[in-house]
């Protein structure tokens, strides 16, 4: 079955007019908050539209079209804060939302950390990063692509006997943020994906795996049939798995799994965890946590970056800067509230981090396998066994046993464990095999030694 081509025809675009309309709404709400006596105020407006299609075993399961709007108002009376939201753009509803936020603020306690980010930190320029690429696709076309993806996977090998389905998703979002410092910023972005999950084998020997492609522009997606065939290949590679004896071995996290290690680090250096003293990396700024060659940079200005932005969720100007340099923690991940709780300044990360790049010191996956020689390649992680306070780590895993620098056989039913402080310090290599499907851009990560709990 030939895969339908991904259409990239031009789309009638009214996003600028919609941004102007939401900007007008935001400014009116700020004026109403000021008239009600608020000393500071901020408004967030967003509109989202999307289409999601799911198929399974050649049949359509769900088709969902969405169109959502949200208006959120936050007011400050000194250091008392109140927030309210609505999806209704009628003037009486907007006025009621402001009144409700003001009423809430009058009954809250003073919070010394409350308030807008400092005025001098506001972004002064507006930029776009090639992230707006609407996809003119209707439900039938999306169904055809999903069916083609699943069929390509099922047809690739007779051992593929079942399916968890295939999906096609598209989303477009526009947003405006404004505050009483005079800041007004608008953003627009799109995201599209094709995914497929397949099942091979029979009875207790069944194995499942999947693949997906995601991009800001539909033209950057993998072809639907290629996604299905990659899902089939990954599923077949997992057939006839073995268990491993319990022991300590090198563990190589495939790139898509390596992102989770970076995610655990981000959680530990985020402001909320730090000021609540719920992090195993308290007071870690300026200390060495990783090997001396290791680094992570934040790059908010990448063209077609998944998290590119000129300002954060508080209007603070973003900037390129290292999070980790020479293995040393350079800074935390802070919005203005958590920064004030810690006696620091915001790092322009209200709403999260922007594009992250993890420095590589090794080659592609094949060369990393050769360098490891013998150990475990992890391609799937299960469970949430991470203690954010102690850093203790224990998660179910599956993947492949490596002997002589080559994959020997699949393994599952195992647990990998350690302490994240020790895991970070024991990183020996980061590969160039970056998985581009995330704002965290990292290759595979090799940890010199972790406990693998298996069959004995």
From TrEMBL:
Annotated Gene Ontology MF terms? metallopeptidase activity
**Tree of life domain:** Bacteria
What is one process in the GO biological process aspect for this record? Answer: proteolysis
Keyword field contains Hydrolase: yes
State a GO cellular component annotated for this protein.
cytosol
List each copy of the Metalloprotease TldD/E C-terminal domain by range: 246-454
Where would I find the Metalloprotease TldD/E central domain in this sequence?
A: 133-239
Q: Keyword annotations for this protein?
A: Hydrolase, Metalloprotease, Protease
Report the InterPro entries cross-referenced here. Answer: Metalloprtase-TldD/E_C, Metalloprtase-TldD/E_cen_dom, Metalloprtase-TldD/E_N, PmbA, TldD/PmbA_N, TldD/PmbA_sf
Task: Provide the Metalloprotease TldD/E N-terminal domain boundaries.
Answer: 41-105
Q: Name one Pfam family in it.
A: PmbA_TldD_3rd
What the record says about family reads: Belongs to the peptidase U62 family.
- What is the protein's given name? Metalloprotease PmbA
Q: What is the lineage of its organism?
A: Bacteria, Pseudomonadati, Pseudomonadota, Gammaproteobacteria, Lysobacterales
Gene this protein is translated from? pmbA
């Amino acid at each position: 079955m030939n895969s339908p081509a991904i259409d990239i025809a031009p789309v009638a675009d009214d996003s600028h007019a919609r941004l102007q309309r939401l900007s007008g709404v935001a400014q009116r709400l700020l004026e109403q908050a000021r008239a009600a006596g608020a000393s500071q105020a901020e408004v967030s407006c967003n509109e989202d539209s999307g289409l999601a299609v799911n198929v399974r075993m050649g049949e359509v399961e769900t088709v969902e079209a969405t169109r959502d709007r949200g208006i959120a108002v936050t007011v400050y009376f000194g250091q008392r804060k109140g927030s309210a939201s609505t999806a209704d753009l009628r003037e009486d509803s907007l006025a009621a939302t402001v009144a409700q936020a003001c009423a809430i603020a009058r009954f809250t306690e003073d919070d010394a950390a409350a308030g807008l980010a400092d005025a001098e930190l506001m972004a002064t320029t507006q930029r776009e990063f090639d992230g707006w690429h609407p996809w003119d696709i209707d439900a039938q076309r999306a169904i055809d692509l999903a069916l083609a993806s699943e069929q390509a996977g099922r047809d690739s090998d007779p051992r593929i006997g079942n399916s968890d389905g295939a999906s096609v998703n598209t989303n477009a979002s526009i947003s405006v943020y404004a505050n009483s410092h005079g800041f007004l910023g608008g953003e627009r972005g799109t995201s599209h994906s094709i995914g497929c999950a397949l099942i091979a084998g029979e009875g207790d020997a069944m194995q499942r795996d999947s693949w997906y492609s995601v991009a800001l522009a539909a033209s950057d997606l993998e072809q639907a049939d290629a996604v299905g065939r990659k899902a089939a290949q990954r599923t077949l590679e997992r057939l006839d798995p073995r268990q491993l004896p319990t022991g300590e071995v090198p563990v190589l996290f495939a790139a898509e799994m390596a992102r989770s290690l970076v995610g655990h680090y981000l959680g530990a250096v985020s402001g909320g965890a730090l000021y609540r003293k719920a992090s195993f990396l308290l007071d870690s700024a300026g200390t060495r946590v990783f090997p001396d060659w290791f680094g992570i940079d934040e790059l908010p200005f990448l063209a077609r970056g998944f998290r590119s932005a000129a300002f954060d969720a508080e209007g603070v100007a973003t900037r390129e800067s290292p999070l980790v340099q020479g293995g040393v923690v350079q800074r935390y991940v802070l919005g203005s509230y958590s920064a004030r709780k810690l006696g620091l300044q915001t790092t322009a990360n209200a709403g999260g981090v922007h594009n992250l790049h993890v420095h590589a010191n090794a080659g592609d996956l094949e060369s990393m396998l050769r360098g490891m020689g013998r150990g475990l390649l992890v391609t799937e992680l299960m469970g949430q066994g991470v203690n954010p306070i102690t850093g203790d780590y224990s998660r179910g895993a599956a993947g492949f046993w490596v002997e002589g620098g080559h994959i020997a056989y699949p393994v599952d039913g195992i647990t990998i464990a350690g302490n994240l402080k020790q895991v970070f310090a024991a990183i020996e290599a980061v590969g160039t095999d970056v998985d581009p499907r995330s704002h965290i851009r990292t290759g595979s990560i090799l940890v010199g030694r972790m406990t693998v709990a298996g069959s004995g």
